[in-house]
Amino acid sequence: MPNVHTEAKIFTCTQSKVLSQKIADAFGIPMGNVITSTYSDGEFQPSYEESIRGTRVFIIGSTNPGAENLMEMLLMIDAAKRASARHITAVLPYFGWARQDRKDKPRVPIAAKLVAKMLEAAGATRIITMDLHADQIQGFFEKPVDHLFASTIFLPYLKSLKLDNLTIASPDMGGSKRAYAYSKALESDVVICYKQRAKANVISYMELIGDVKGKNVVLVDDMVDTAGTLTKAADLMMERGALSVRAICTHPILSGNAYERLENSKLEELIVTDSIPLKQESSKIRVLTCANLFAEVMQNVHYNKSISSKFVM
């Protein structure tokens, strides 16, 4: 009689190889074998080098720009569908293109919705991701979405620092909900930065709502891109009398002059996960792995166990 339990297999997209290997080790199964052929014009073709018929396939890859990362995920999902995998779970440690979650002015796309539809059209039957830029993106999918919170990684580290007069800060109004959740868990105060943008990645004005004098401040955000907001907020808080300023950001995009800004800022440290590999090392950046979090959730999904504790702040 055939084995009625579906076998699990883990595969990785190119840019997430290091994290995927950690996840596979924590899950307790070897990494699946995929090779990618590349044409001279840049077109590429992933190929599964083992049978995946009837299996539960986990495909791990963050979809941050460039577009090749998203395209590779789509091709991997499509190949798995055509190879008769029974379940195809797209594991997106970082869900890219998520800042375009609504029309904030006329005649612009809603890229996050488009990406969700593309993943489903390719054949994904489930999505596992972490700290979406906007919670409502879960509703862009018709398939199940497991939205994990990196707070389960960051909170133990913050508690280990044993900071006196701890205050949690949000670098903008949109992140106030996240900041309040952290402050509740840590029983601390909250301050919020109010900012206005001249255009994307350019801040024209910033003001602080709340008192940070004599406080050890921890800024909390879902991502850090150019680090303009974080470093400006840290400098402002130090001017207002803060003892120290740290930042927790789940996804270290760190583009443009971000590393230079961090080195020249008054931030004591930037704490991130390895959802996106760092482009370079920095003495101010501390990386906490999310591999165990994803491995545990993937196991629970595979064995039909509850995962609610991993996406409740």
TrEMBL record:
Spans through the membrane: none
InterPro entries attached to this UniProt entry: PRib_PP_synth_CS, Pribosyltran_N, PRTase-like, PRTase_dom, Rib-P_diPkinase
GO molecular function: ATP binding; kinase activity; magnesium ion binding; ribose phosphate diphosphokinase activity
Keywords (A to Z) from UniProt: ATP-binding, Cytoplasm, Kinase, Magnesium, Metal-binding, Nucleotide biosynthesis, Nucleotide-binding, Transferase
Domain (Ribose-phosphate pyrophosphokinase N-terminal) ranges: 9-123
Catalytic activity line of the entry: D-ribose 5-phosphate + ATP = 5-phospho-alpha-D-ribose 1-diphosphate + AMP + H(+)
An annotated GO BP: 5-phosphoribose 1-diphosphate biosynthetic process
GO CC terms in record: cytoplasm; ribose phosphate diphosphokinase complex
SMART domains per record: Pribosyltran_N
EC identifiers of the protein: 2.7.6.1
Protein name from the UniProt record: ribose-phosphate diphosphokinase
Organism: Bizionia myxarmorum
